[in-house]
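Tutorial handout. Part one gives the primary structure; part two gives the three-dimensional structure as tokens.
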Amino acid sequence: MADATVQSRVDDTVDHTPPTVDAVVLLGAGGVGKTSTSAALGIAAARRGRRVVVLTVDPARRLVETLGLSSTYPSEVVEITGIGGFRTGTLHATMLDPGHTLTGLVDEFAPSHARATAIHRNRLFQSLVGSLSGLSEYMAAERFRQLIRDPRFDLVIVDTPPAQNGVDVLDAPNRLTDLLDHRLYRTLLAPRRGVLRTLNAATHLAARAIGRVVGATLLSDVIEFFALFEGMDRGFADRAAEVDALLTSARTHFLLVSTARPEPLQTATWISDQLGDRTINPEAMVINRRLTEVPPPTTSMPEPIRRALNEHNAVAESESEVLRSMSVSRGHRLVTIPDAQHEDPLGVLVEMSEHL
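Part two.
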């Protein structure tokens, strides 16, 4: 693989006047630096005049503090300061709070304040807010929609959960639509006085299983939850369709993020295949923390320094061999970000941004 290939940039993704891209979604394995890459891409875009917001999902604590998110209230959007060169661009960041986002959706679609309050007090709803099992990906997609519609920003950068959960964000709107059309859901929305009579054996068992998950002892606890959502499902379905349209729009681009190691590269390849199944072609693959070879040591250098330089070059060469042997490009542009030299976390992000 020629160096010219891997020294590409992602300018085409964010650097158009007027902008042709509204969002960039980053996908990859855990631990490859997706959040750092998202923030660095935000810096690069803001320096090109874009009004950027970075949506982070479960970032490392050190990065939370670097981005100024450690003391914010749920879903607060904060401006990133202390970075020069923005001119007309701006950079903000926010951290996903699935429970807060779900609560906001209920408040928006409930026909009355009393109905919203009843839903908030329901035990099943409180369990969902506490665990968000199976719903956090949809909440990430909904938060993405909110930020896309926010007039303060013209570019949304999304740092997704690792691997499968990141891909699940793309499927979340359709899964919600399928749920709203499911026979069990429709049965539980039937008039409450007759609902127990309409439950067949399989549905009855399924509903009881839901009750066991949240510790409910009566089937009516679960039925009440669904009954409270009566009349709201159309609003949720319409919103899911809107989110799906935004995620699959030509104005939403996707980047794969990996390091030059076999396991995360295999994950990136799997994600690329998953995107292909959804007729999505990633714009580029970012190879993070890439070691580059340095001049070989001379005989006049102390032995420990010679050994360290030789070991460094051996690792750098092995990374190059991994990239060659796995044919990771697969038609994607490759963007390499060298291993950062800064100790300051904000300095690391700025250094990374210079390669994007």
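Part three, for discussion. Confidence is low (pLDDT under 50) at residues 1-7, 192-197. The beta strands are 23-28, 51-56, 78-79, 90-95, 155-159, 252-259, 284-290, 333-338.
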